[in-house]
Specification:
Number of helices: 9
Radius of gyration: 25 Å
Mean pLDDT: 81
Low-confidence stretches: 1-31, 220-245
Number of strands: 0
Length: 245
């Protein structure tokens, strides 16, 4: 019989009838956001974004209006939600970026830049014909470009510079969206400017008509009137106040 190794005199000993029970450390329950906190209002806005029915658009605009009361805090809450969302939850991540774009607030620039600067992970569904994780990631990033474009068209020079930065993105669709967004926001002379600075491989993008975000296929969401997604509702309709752009 092999000799048992003896411990030092200071080594704790267990009696034969002792049992060693390993317990997982107790986790504190997740803190619930206060009903009127920026995170709670952001979740409400996302739920309304995905809603249906005749009042869906009105409800979403009202939720955006509530967030706009403290847009900087709202952006911070959505940014944190995005960071906490698992990578494979593409729909959740897309709605969060879409909300950042719809807020049209300069506080979202760093978050949008962070999303665009994160490399697209390798394809996780190579055998699929109609589904692509790279496609999902690309859609998230082109939505972030839309957010920067909306800011840049409001004379946000920092957003315009970020569009220039992401013209060098590894993904062609993202580069194309950044170039088209820059052309829309930079005004007269932008096309000639980009002809001088873009590499030969991307010159053809200058001749592509930029699609509006409502015209681009998005993740499967409940249908909303596409022609009203980004339009200001008529003043005489009983709508929530317009968010200042």
């Amino acid at each position: 019989m092999p000799e048992r190794r003896r411990g030092s005199p200071d080594t704790p000993q267990m009696a034969p009838d002792d049992e060693l029970t390993l317990r997982e450390p107790q986790r504190a329950p997740a803190a619930q956001a206060a009903p009127d906190s920026p995170r709670a209002r952001a979740r409400t806005a996302i739920n309304q974004m995905m809603g249906s029915g005749p009042d869906a658009e009105l409800n979403y605009r009202a939720a955006l209006q509530a967030l706009a009361r403290d847009a900087r805090a709202a952006v911070g809450a959505v940014r944190d939600m995005y960071r906490e969302t698992p990578e494979d939850q593409y729909m959740d991540r897309w709605t969060q970026v879409h909300l950042l774009a719809d807020l049209r607030n300069g506080a979202a620039r760093p978050a949008l830049d962070e999303i665009l600067s994160t490399p697209i992970p390798p394809e996780k569904a190579p055998g699929m014909i109609t589904y692509s994780t790279v496609g999902e990631e690309t859609m998230i990033r082109t939505t972030a470009i839309e957010g920067l474009t909306r800011l840049a068209t409001q004379d946000d020079r920092e957003a315009l510079e970020l569009l220039r930065k992401h013209m060098r993105h590894e993904n062609l669709s993202v580069r194309s969206a950044a170039i088209q967004g820059y052309l829309e926001a930079a005004g007269e002379g932008a096309r000639d400017e980009l002809r001088r600075v873009l590499p030969e491989r991307d010159q053809f993008i200058l001749n592509i008509r930029r699609a509006q975000v409502q015209d681009v296929p998005q993740p499967s969401v409940v249908e909303r009137p596409s022609e009203e997604v980004d339009e200001v509702p008529p003043a005489e309709r009983p709508l929530p106040p317009k968010i200042e752009e």
